[in-house]
């Protein structure tokens, strides 16, 4: 093993340690504000629901019980039952797993791609920046839901991928343009600083400057952007579920549950209101968490909103 290989591995470890330290510190930042604390509590509750959901459901979410259809909320069924006699609370708890993991992985993909494109484009500038940003502008011209429907339709016809993985890919692709533009702006503010110029003058390679000098210093901006995009991803996933894409019956999904129960609103409004309320509180929690980070770091309010 030569010296350059050892140096490369050492640099990679240092980058990983610094990045993990920044992420750990990022989680503590919202605790400085009331909105951040409330958002973190809500996110923690739903995280517990996702992890321990199979043990928290009082009934089997997919089990039909036609003798107890349209039962109103009671001690035996806290959120009532739907048109097939299934316990709504159990289905809301079970449905949290699919919509959250799809949204989280899709957002992570979009943030990853957006970070690579944004930092590289902001640092290199010139023709690379122009080509990358025009490509992002082209993707931005499509509404997220329309782009999602287009890509999922093409994916179902030409690939054998499960719809859930197609939605993850769609979320990643749809959110990359906005992510890249926000992160590019953050990189442009770091680029002219002295420590970046020193690294360039020392002859450090591009990956070193991007990953070790610029990336650790924009982690808070990436954190805010990820939180904001996660709330949009949740709504997009729920919208696709409502349209019948993604998780298929009889498996529970919040968007699908609203669609299945909307024709029975007069008899059992709780079957639609429960998943809608769960979605609303989760999105509010994520936005409060993002707002807590923004307030603590005094970041501009319009960052990541375009």
Summarize the topology.
Layout: H1 3-28, H2 34-56, H3 88-124, H4 126-140, H5 144-158, H6 163-190, H7 194-201, H8 206-214, H9 219-242, H10 254-261, H11 270-297
Notes on the protein architecture:
By secondary structure, the protein is mainly alpha-helical. It has a single domain, classed as Orthogonal Bundle (MetI-like fold). The protein contains eleven helices and no strands. The termini are far apart.
Strand percent estimate: under 5%
Largest sheet: none
- Please tell me what the overall shape is: elongated
Gap between N and C termini, in Å? 48 Å
How many domains, in number, for the residues?
Answer: 1
What is the CATH first-level class name?
Mainly Alpha
H/E topology pattern: HHHHHHHHHHH
Rounded to an integer in angstroms, the radius of gyration calculated over CA atoms is: 22 Å
Q: Which regions contain 5 or more consecutive residues with pLDDT less than 50?
A: 302-306
CATH superfamily: MetI-like
Average predicted confidence as pLDDT: 83
Number of helix segments? Answer: 11
Give descriptors for this structure.
306 residues; mainly alpha; MetI-like fold; 11 helices; single chain
Summarize the structure.
The chain is mostly helical and 306 residues long. The chain is built from 11 helices and no strands. It has one domain (40-58, 76-297): Orthogonal Bundle (MetI-like fold).
